[in-house]
Design brief:
Chain lengths: 218, 227
């Protein structure tokens, strides 16, 4: 990955530079017009956020039961990126919602789930920062429970009320919209894997440095 | 298996005996629940008339808030003289200790609910008591789900520096499904006419939540409580 990192970074930069042009050339949606184009960034960020949350939960479980420090680094990096992508999702969504639903926010299944998922990621980071010694385990427990929680939130609010477009929208996009959409999905996932690699490497080096400090003190 | 439940019962009995002597947590929790109700009466009563469906929300928020307080206090008591460490050193399955603590917490919250529910029913003119056959399982399963997650997190947080503020931050997002199911189920019962089928569906969701999260807690209590 280290060798491929710079070339992939160049590819990602080029993709993000080209994305606005690609999106601008896509056909307008008949009722939502310009504002519909928020979807090209909103939906891919949402996908990345969900997957990042699951990665954090699984890595936390590995850390708890296998005591793998590498898994802990992955869990932390994924939690941070869940929070970052959560900001993109939660800011771009209301832009669209204002036009489509007439309000900035509704308490629908997917919105509630995204909001609670984002809250759990932030709580994870707060625990790690202010929890004191041993807080990695605490945070790992939270990530594990958080990941298990997502289907329940979705199920319960979905029964209660939902107006968010269904997930069946993405595979059935008309030609012209489909290409820029999947292009953006690829760009966001590429960016995510690059950020993950960098963040995990940083965390690994920080841990190595801590170990060296401890060894020097002994 | 018998040993497991014996230990769980012993831990429960220990907590119960201490509480019976001081009654500190029961009294403070109940008083706090009453203060919650007072605050709600200021916002959810317009011109002398309580808002429709407000009672369902008030019951569950009062349970969640006073439950958080009780969880914090219960484990604060264990921290005073490092008795939690003594419990964990004891040659007993860790999961049994968790179950004992959970039983104590559920018993405490159930006691609070016995007082809280009639009070909300009277003060907010809600027909909660007439729906008791379905309300009772709803409350019991909701309490088990809330306390199941809460006991684990409160136990983990005993060692953390900022435990008082961290407990609600961790607990509320995770217990969102419990609150939704509890509030929706209760308000289905308060409809005129009541919708028992809807309440039964929420009871089912609560039951599956309880099974998943108590299993997960039993499974993670051991690694989480190991230094």
């Amino acid at each position: 990955m280290r060798k491929a990192f710079i070339p992939l970074l160049v590819v990602a930069t080029a993709m993000f530079a080209y994305a606005p042009i690609f999106i601008a050339n896509a056909p307008y949606e008949s009722t939502m017009l310009l504002i519909q184009k928020v979807m090209y960034f909103h939906a891919p960020s949402g996908m990345v956020m969900l997957i990042s949350g699951v990665i954090s939960g699984v890595a936390s479980a590995l850390f708890l039961f296998r005591k793998s420090r590498a898994a802990d680094h992955v869990a932390l990096a994924a939690a941070e990126l869940t929070a970052v992508y959560g900001v993109i999702v939660l800011l771009s969504g209301p832009l669209w919602a204002r036009k489509a639903w007439g309000v900035w926010w509704v308490w629908d299944a997917r919105l509630t789930m995204a909001f609670v998922g984002w809250l759990i990621a932030l709580a994870y980071l707060v625990v790690r920062k202010y929890g004191g010694p041993g807080s990695e385990k605490l945070a790992a427990g939270l990530a594990l429970f958080g990941a298990a929680n997502v289907p329940f939130i979705y199920l319960s609010v979905n029964i209660w009320r939902t107006i968010h477009p269904q997930t069946t929208v993405a595979p059935t996009l008309p030609a012209g919209m489909r290409e820029p959409f999947w292009f953006c999905v690829a760009a966001f996932f590429l960016l995510y894997s690059l950020l993950m690699t960098t963040r995990v490497r940083l965390e690994r080096q920080r841990a190595t440095l801590d170990d060296l400090y401890l060894a020097a003190e002994d | 298996m018998n040993v497991f439940f014996n230990i769980a019962f012993l831990v429960f009995k220990k907590d119960f005996t201490i509480e019976l002597k001081s009654r500190e947590i029961v009294y403070t929790t109940l008083l706090f629940a009453l203060s919650c109700i007072l605050i709600f009466s200021l916002t959810f009563v317009v011109e002398g008339q309580p808002l429709a469906e407000a009672a369902a929300g008030i019951v569950w928020i009062a349970i969640a808030f006073s439950g958080t307080l009780a969880l914090g206090r219960t484990f604060e008591r264990e921290r005073y003289s490092e008795t939690l460490r003594a419990l964990l050193i004891a040659p007993a399955p860790r999961a049994a200790i968790y179950v004992g603590k959970l039983l104590g917490m559920v018993a405490l919250l159930a006691a609070a609910e016995v007082l809280l529910v009639p009070l909300v029913a009277v003060l907010f003119q809600a027909n909660l008591l007439g729906q008791l056959p379905l309300l009772a399982p709803l409350l019991l399963l909701g309490t088990i789900g809330f306390a199941g997650v809460g006991t684990l997190f409160a136990a983990m947080l005993v060692r953390a520096r900022t435990r008082d503020v961290l407990l609600p931050i961790l607990l509320y997002p995770i217990t969102v499904p419990v609150m939704i199911a509890g509030v929706r189920g209760t308000s289905a019962l308060l409809q005129d006419p009541a919708e028992p089928a809807l309440a039964i569906m929420w009871i089912g969701i609560l039951a599956s939540f309880d099974v998943v999260f108590v299993t997960l807690a039993l499974w993670t209590f051991e690694p989480l409580m190991t230094e």
